[in-house]
């Protein structure tokens, strides 16, 4: 099956079950939002799908275009067409964005000869300072610059599926709009996006085809874009069990205090 397919995925972190049977599939060109309160396991989902150490898959299947990802190392998943824009992007002292993307393209058998021009063009399109291209990757960047950095990598590497975790953290309204427009263009060219967010506001900028609520370790509700705006009004209280703080939540302001 084409696209990313997650079937009955269960994941333990530090010996505790965080995900217990997640089902989700994202086809080319689609945007699927996974929403849920802090600590629901949204980042665990993307970490496990990308194969990050410490996220132990205890059951289920994850495939990209029908090919099993779970037996692959992380770099092989990337070469297969998976990209992960992390919630808190990793800083890599001594390695520039230019170096990193050159290595990624070459190890995948692609040419990096025109990369310098491509990077400058893409940087300009999303308001990323081109001077940062030669500095250590993500080191000493602001939260917003890191999100632009991740978006730029996504644009240049051309993945099939991107896991995008909390795109709006650190970006101001204009920055979020710029970055969201670029991601939207990529989806028009066939990129499938799993957009992880606990705030609906990002969905004002990047329209989701489907919205899923992650709670109690699984997808408890799926709907269209209107579900995100319902959550904006109600918070997650209707979907979360046994948490007085959340069940009494009147709206999103409460989620800041969790
Ligand atoms: P979300 O992204 O939905 O806010 P996370 O997936 O980051 O939630 O976290 C889900 C739960 O797993 C939380 O209780 C968190 O503390 C725990 N967790 C996540 N990653 C780790 C880790 N590397 N080590 C220990 N616990 C973790
Ligand atoms: Mg998270």
Short description:
The protein is of the alpha/beta class and 258 residues long. It has helices at residues 42-50, 74-80, 97-107, 115-125, 143-157, 173-188, 202-205, 225-234, 244-247; strands at residues 4-13, 16-26, 31-35, 55-64, 67-68, 82-85, 92-96, 136-137, 161-165, 192-197, 210-215, 218-223. It is 34% helix and 28% strand.
Task: Report on the architecture of this protein.
The protein is of the alpha/beta class. The protein has a single domain, classed as P-loop containing nucleotide triphosphate hydrolases (Rossmann fold). The chain contains 9 helices and 12 strands. The N and C termini lie far apart (39 Å). It binds adenosine-5'-diphosphate (ADP) and magnesium ion. The site of magnesium ion (MG) has 5 residues, from helix 1.
Which descriptors apply to this entry?
9 helices; 28% strand; binds magnesium ion; Rossmann fold; 34% helix; disordered C terminus; alpha/beta; single chain; 258 residues; six-stranded mixed β-sheet; four-stranded antiparallel β-sheet; binds adenosine-5'-diphosphate
Number of E strands: 12
Specify the CATH homologous superfamily.
P-loop containing nucleotide triphosphate hydrolases
Using only CA atoms, what is the Rg?
18 Å
Q: Name the average pLDDT.
A: 92
Low-confidence stretches: 244-258
Largest sheet, spatial ordering of strands: 6-9-10-3-11-12
What's the layout of helices and strands?
Blueprint: E1 4-13, E2 16-26, E3 31-35, H1 42-50, E4 55-64, E5 67-68, H2 74-80, E6 82-85, E7 92-96, H3 97-107, H4 115-125, E8 136-137, H5 143-157, E9 161-165, H6 173-188, E10 192-197, H7 202-205, E11 210-215, E12 218-223, H8 225-234, H9 244-247
Parallel strand pairs: 3-10, 3-11, 6-9, 9-10
Antiparallel strand pairs: 1-2, 1-4, 4-5, 7-8, 11-12
Helix pairs in contact: 3-5, 4-5, 5-6
Bound molecules: adenosine-5'-diphosphate and magnesium ion (MG).
């Amino acid at each position: 099956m084409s696209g990313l397919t997650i079937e009955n995925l269960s994941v333990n972190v530090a010996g505790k079950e965080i995900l217990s049977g997640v089902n989700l599939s994202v086809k080319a060109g689609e945007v699927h939002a996974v929403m849920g309160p802090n600590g629901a396991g949204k980042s665990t989902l993307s970490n496990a799908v990308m194969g990050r150490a410490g996220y132990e898959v205890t059951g289920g299947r994850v495939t990209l275009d029908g090919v099993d990802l779970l037996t692959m190392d992380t770099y092989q998943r990337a070469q297969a067409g998976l990209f992960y824009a992390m919630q808190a992007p990793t800083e890599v002292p001594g390695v520039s964005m230019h170096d990193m993307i050159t290595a990624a393209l070459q190890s995948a058998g692609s040419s990096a000869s025109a990369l310098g021009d491509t990077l400058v063009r893409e940087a300009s399109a999303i308001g990323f300072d081109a001077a940062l291209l030669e500095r250590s990757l993500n080191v000493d960047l602001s939260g917003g610059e890191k999100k632009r950095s991740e978006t730029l990598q996504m644009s240049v590497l051309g993945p099939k599926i991107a896991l995008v975790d909390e795109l709006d953290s650190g970006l101001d309204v204009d920055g979020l709009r710029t970055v969201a427009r670029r991601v939207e263009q990529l989806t028009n060219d066939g990129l499938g996006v799993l957009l992880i967010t606990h705030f609906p506001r990002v969905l004002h900028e990047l329209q989701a085809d489907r919205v899923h609520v992650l709670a109690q370790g699984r997808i408890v509700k799926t709907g269209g874009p209107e579900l995100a705006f319902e959550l904006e009004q109600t918070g997650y209280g209707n979907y979360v069990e046994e948490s007085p703080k959340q069940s009494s939540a009147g709206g999103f302001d409460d989620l800041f205090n969790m």
